[in-house]
Amino acid sequence: MALWELISCTAMSNLKALICAASLALAESDALADPPCQGDWLNDAAPLNGHVSGSETFLQTVTDDLSFSLVPDASGWQVQMLGPDDRKIPTRPVASGIAPRRGESAPSRAFAFGPDVMDPALNPELQVPQAPQGESSNVATVEPTPGLQGRGWLIIEDSRFADEAPHRRDALEFRGCVHWNLGPREPDTSHYPHPQDDLVNFPSWVVLAFEECGLSRDWLLSGRMPREGYRQRAWLEPDLDGDARPDLAALVDEVNGTDHGLALCLRESKRLMIMTPDNSPTSGLDAFLREAEWWNVDGRTIVIAGGDAQSIRVHLDEDGAPIGIVR
């Protein structure tokens, strides 16, 4: 079989090829549900679907700078991701293993792409076991390389094999998904007085997400949450806009002032809103946020509680503006 297997039943008799194709069709039809095709704060995602036949090359534009292609080979087709100006991005298959639970989809056409995708130092599955000491077949990359990179999967919905040897797959209908990002990135924390201490309660992806959402350098993420004695995080992930994707919320402090606020970032639109005493009708918001001891998510609402048994419930109104109601 070829290294890249979109399926090869080559070098078989017609009967064996037929049995092979039938068994593969049964295995493919056993998948009842696709893995989710959703992005997150660090990765974008897009669905793949189409059909290809004969010696055609399939091409689907994912974004202005990223395309998915199926290139014909001796056994069928192989995936090739393309960057700006249709430059080839190194692409290779990834073993997907067995479905974790019966009835779940386990696509065997997984692939990975990116500038470091062939580097064994960053991809342990490519390392050769028991290599002689002092010898290595790979040149290790000290740091991951920036650039378009990610992973994807395909599920074959229908296919046809050629009648004549080598019985390559000559028609394919598929669906799938590709996840990608621009490579390793670190947030800008130069405006924090003591970044390691000030952001100790935040993972870098939260800081980066707020930065990309438009949080200016006039505001600093506050690590006042969690308070001692409470099991909670310094940020919340409520679905404020009801799009079934988690948004972000965190307390913030003004850099050159005394204001305290609540920063909200909507994931899909990357829209940033900051509730402050100046733009909120909620009386005493600044003092409340400064002294708040506990918070949680209740559906599409953020609940913030103080030591005096009062609480504020924050949600978005019909126009998408944040509203805080004191209880």
Describe the SSE topology:
Elements lengths: L13 H16 L14 E10 L4 E6 L2 E7 L4 E6 L5 E2 L1 E4 L15 E4 L35 E13 L7 E13 L13 H4 L5 H10 L5 E3 L13 E2 L11 E7 L5 E7 L4 E5 L9 H7 L2 E5 L2 E5 L5 E6 L5 E5 L1
Antiparallel strand pairs: 1-9, 2-3, 3-4, 4-5, 6-7, 7-8, 8-9, 10-12, 11-12, 12-13, 13-14, 15-16, 16-17, 17-18
Question: Would you summarize the structure shown here?
Answer:
This protein is mainly beta. Helix content is 11%, strand content 34%.
Question: Which terms would index this structure?
Answer:
327 residues; elongated; mainly beta; 11% helix; disordered N terminus; 5-stranded antiparallel beta sheet; 4 helices
Can you describe what's shown?
It is a single chain. The chain has 4 helices and 18 strands. The protein is mostly beta strands and 327 residues long. The longest helix has 16 residues, at 14-29. Strand 13 (260-266) and strand 14 form a beta hairpin.
